[in-house]
Amino acid sequence: MRLWLARAAGAAILVAAVLVSWNWSVEKPPFAREAMFYEKFPGAKVRCGNCPRRCLIAPGRRGFCGVRQNAGGKLYLIAYGKPCAMGLEPIEKAPFFHFIPGSRRLVIATVGCSLRCRFCQNWNISQAAFEDVPHYEMPPERVVAEALKAKADSICFTFTEPVVYYEYMYDIAKLAHAQGLKTAMVSSGYINPAPLKELLKVLDAVKIDLKGFTDQFYGEMAAADLRPVLDTIKAVKASGRWLEIVNLVIPGKNDDPKEIERMCRWLKDNVGPDVPIHFTRFFPSYRLTSVAPTPVGTLAKAYAIAKAAGLRYVYVGNVPGDPLENTVCPKCGKTVIERQGYTIAANRLKNGRCPYCSARLEGLWR
Ligand code: SF4
Question: Of 76, 112, 241, 251, which residue is the least packed, with the fewest Cβ within 10 Å?
């Protein structure tokens, strides 16, 4: 009898343990939303289709970015409706210089990233575990309502990698458009073609962080590949959405003039001379604290290389007050937008045209 009782108790404990682990892997995580792009595999595994990593995720586990979880053979975004950062900022801070200049954007981000940039400026939220960072409870309807209340002109997905919280971004952007707000994404461009195509239906502008122009740089500094980023840049341009490029110039890592020249020539040949490019100044951060800030002269050199390669709208960034932050008419050479840091000191454009020579400047003006 005692032996039977012991066996029964043992079996009950085993069943309870199985049920606990079963519930953990079967139940939809609270407030999560099912992913839009994934495939199911035997053994209740799933493959995420959002970014080129294409993580194969076992039940109960999460993908590389830490916010997409397999629960019972379905893939969920657990950060849905849970942003860790929100605020109101000038659009110039993105930086977007040809997308409604002088406007205010509601910025939003959740935890998580699909890259591992050693120089990340937002590593405390991009590289953190979801549970370690406090977040708001903010369904898409409330985000849009907050943007309207704050009289923002746009909602901008930024700071971390928006591709990893794709469904949240997508739902917000769709609602925002219905309410007359513009939408923009600041991204590394590490996204697969199918989700990108769908996303571009609900975005007005995209800024791609082109981190360097060699596979070696992408591999060593970001644990990623260059090719998918270039494909994204071409696809955004082909979609007709407004596109700007930023390149953080890091001394000794991606500041070789030949590399910068190849990058600028590629941009001109593949997306045309009118795509704005911002060369921004690096400051030591995260795992790259031993590298000194970018000399301002290096940025001026990059500017000259880009102009010589035929790009019409070239800027330097993170150097407040530098005249290379101004927009110059590519036809007559006169300054049409003056900037002081994130502030527009003067905007002389008239319906997107130069007031001096009437040339049309490319961009999404107000
Ligand atoms: S979005 Fe996240 S889970 Fe999906 S493939 Fe990329 S890193 Fe993996």
Answer: 251
